[in-house]
């Protein structure tokens, strides 16, 4: 008899983490269900109070910058044409960055952060058309900052923070570390928010509610959907930040930003919503739209885009 696969042999994200539980095999003779896909609606470019969007920000976990460039990710960026492009999981030391991105004239102001200890691990980037007033790296705690996970840019009326939040990993071996990160990161954002309102974007490595992933039941003990990680996200919202997508589309199901490469998950739309734009309450009146660009290929995540009037 062939061995049965172990229950948790699911694919993992980048540094080992989120995998969607495989769908149950269909009984013989039964037609497989057609996947329910998400259609990104037309962009809204004005806020509820009637102001036109004047800031467009795109965030994308590229799952390896060099491979993503080869997969023509920059062609999509040029078409999307955001004012600021934030990237996560670049997995690339600054000295090894491909010239296709370092030489991009559209974004003269480019900022990179990478892991100090492990090359080809973690890493974030921010590319700006307009020079920020200041840029900082990390959150001021060495145990977190050595992994190259956060860049903060100050603009005249807000801070922009891009983050690649640590994954609790297969077997939840980093869950305790993740809980520490959540507390420290929330404190960092709260201090910033007292100075100036902020936008947080990136791969926050948690599906907050059951609506945010295809198979909640099978993933309660998996990285990205543990009660501890979900509670950490809830506390972030309670600290005064708003999930922009859910603010605009509270009941929208099947809207995901990550799909494991295994089991044809993307074509079946068996995914997770792990990528977010969170806003300080002071910026909410200027929220125009929060987009999930799920047709853009090149990574196991898709890009997301925020339209804001600031």
TrEMBL record:
Keyword Cytoplasm attributed: yes
Major subcellular location class: nucleus
Swiss-Prot/TrEMBL catalytic activity: Exonucleolytic cleavage in the 3'- to 5'-direction to yield nucleoside 5'-phosphates
Region Disordered, annotated ranges: 1-52
Annotated keywords: Cytoplasm, DNA damage, DNA repair, DNA-binding, Endonuclease, Hydrolase, Magnesium, Manganese, Metal-binding, Mitochondrion, Nuclease, Nucleus
Gene Ontology BP annotations: base-excision repair
Site feature: Transition state stabilizer: 205
Matches recorded under InterPro entries: AP_endonuc_1, AP_endonuclease_F1_BS, AP_endonuclease_F1_CS, Endo/exonu/phosph_ase_sf, Endo/exonuclease/phosphatase
Cofactor note (record): Probably binds two magnesium or manganese ions per subunit.
Domain of life: Eukaryota
Boundaries of every Endonuclease/exonuclease/phosphatase domain copy: 59-301
Class in the EC hierarchy, top level: hydrolase
Family under the similarity heading: Belongs to the DNA repair enzymes AP/ExoA family.
The protein's role, per its UniProt record: Initiates repair of AP sites in DNA by catalyzing hydrolytic incision of the phosphodiester backbone immediately adjacent to the damage, generating a single-strand break with 5'-deoxyribose phosphate and 3'-hydroxyl ends.
Annotated protein name in UniProt: exodeoxyribonuclease III
Organism: Carassius auratus
Gene (name only): LOC113058194
């Amino acid at each position: 008899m062939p061995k049965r696969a172990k229950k948790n042999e699911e694919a993992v994200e980048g540094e080992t983490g989120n995998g969607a539980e495989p769908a149950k095999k269909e009984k013989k003779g039964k037609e497989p269900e057609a996947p329910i896909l998400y259609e990104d609606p037309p962009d809204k470019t004005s806020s509820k109070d009637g102001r036109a969007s004047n800031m467009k920000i795109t965030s994308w976990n590229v799952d390896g910058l060099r491979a993503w460039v080869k997969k023509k990710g920059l062609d999509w960026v040029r078409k999307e044409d955001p004012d600021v492009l934030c990237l996560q999981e670049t997995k690339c030391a600054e000295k090894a960055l491909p010239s296709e991105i370092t030489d991009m004239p559209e974004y003269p102001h480019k900022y990179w952060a990478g892991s100090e200890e492990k090359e080809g691990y973690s890493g974030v980037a921010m590319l700006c058309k307009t020079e920020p007033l200041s840029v900082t790296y990390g959150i001021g705690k060495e145990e977190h900052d050595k992994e190259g996970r956060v860049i903060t840019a100050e603009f005249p009326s807000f801070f922009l923070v891009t983050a690649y939040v640590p994954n609790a990993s297969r077997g939840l071996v980093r869950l305790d570390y993740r809980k520490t990160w959540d507390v420290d990161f929330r404190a960092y954002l709260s201090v910033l928010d007292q100075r100036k309102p902020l936008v947080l974007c990136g791969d926050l490595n948690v599906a907050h509610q059951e609506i945010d992933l295809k198979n909640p039941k099978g993933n309660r003990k998996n990285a990205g959907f543990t009660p501890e990680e979900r509670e950490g996200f809830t506390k972030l919202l309670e600290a005064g930040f708003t999930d922009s997508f859910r603010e605009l589309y509270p009941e929208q199901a099947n809207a995901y930003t990550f799909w494991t490469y295994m089991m044809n998950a993307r074509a079946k739309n068996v995914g997770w919503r792990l990528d977010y734009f969170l806003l300080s309450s002071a910026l909410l009146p200027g929220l125009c739209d929060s987009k999930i660009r799920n047709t853009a290929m090149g990574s196991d995540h898709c890009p997301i885009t925020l339209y804001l009037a600031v």
